[in-house]
Amino acid sequence: MAGNKKKKTQVRPLIPRPGARYTCFGDGLCCTDIHGIGPLTKKEVASMRRIDRKSAGWNDDHDDYMLNTAADGGCVFLMADQRCSVHAQLGPEAKPDGCRRFPLGLVATPVGGRITTDHRCPCRTMGDRPEIRPEDVESSISDGGSRPVADRRIKRIPMSPKKELKFSEWEPIEAEYLKRLRGREALLEVLDAEPFPALHGSSWDKQADEFIDARDGSQFGVAMAWVGDTISALQNGRSPRAPGRPWAAAFDRAQARSPKVGTSRDVFADWIADEIWSLKWAEDYDFALARVELATRLAIGEDICARLRKTGARADRAAAEAVMMVELVGESDFWTEVKDCMRPS
User: Fold this and answer.
1) pTM of this prediction?
2) CB count in 10 Å sphere of residue 160
3) 3-class SS at 166?
4) Which of 103, 229, 286, 340 is the most exposed place for a label (fewest CB within 10 A)?
5) Cβ atoms within 10 Å, residue 321
């Protein structure tokens, strides 16, 4: 019986990744078409409709209930000063769970609940932010009461198609990766993986064209075009024109509150550390594929960053914009198809 208990996952104690920093400055990016604003439960839809009857409903694109957006792509509740009117008038507890939670997450493990963060948010990637403390974020990752709710539960770690580790065996391996990411080593060397592996049943040129063709007038479409354009450039050695600056206003606000300029390496290393720490990859892929996939998105992100630097963008902002794009695309069905085709050497 004791052995079985050890294999169970748990959400307590809450464990932030050492060095992870975040606080909400209200830059407003998360309330835009960077993602679908939801999903909502039927109860949350009813609550939002009591405030504004046209604020929420079924969304065919996401196949779920979502908050509706205004003409500029922002949530209908987003005010001109980038604050949420529901939060401002009724308090944070009145917001849907997804709005309270983003960019935070929680993964249950045999030793406790890992607090995770997404990086498609300049409040997470830029400026002077305090280290994440469990007591500061617990209400955001809980069910409205005092019970933290896990996004996923991970017991064992797939390292390769034929090798799996106990969680206790994984922890020292992971700790070494996180230590190296905090150093000065080249990030691709830390990952020890070659980007752009062979794609079974597809090619990188084909994928680049599909990403570019995904332009639909939204800011997400612009980010997709950036990634597709960059893949094509890296594969063919050309220098493309930049397709635009998605969500530039949010990064303008982040830069205005961030007088101290950080390094691009720190931004990318922080993102990779959280990608590893989140264990999202362990649900569907092994660590060998995760490293190759991360190396590929890193190569794309670093090239986007370099191109933004040439336009005059400062180092930390250029990297933060690049991370926003590669993380956003990495969460899409487009990238899931790419990962399914990857064949690490």
Assistant:
1) 0.92
2) 11
3) strand
4) 340
5) 27
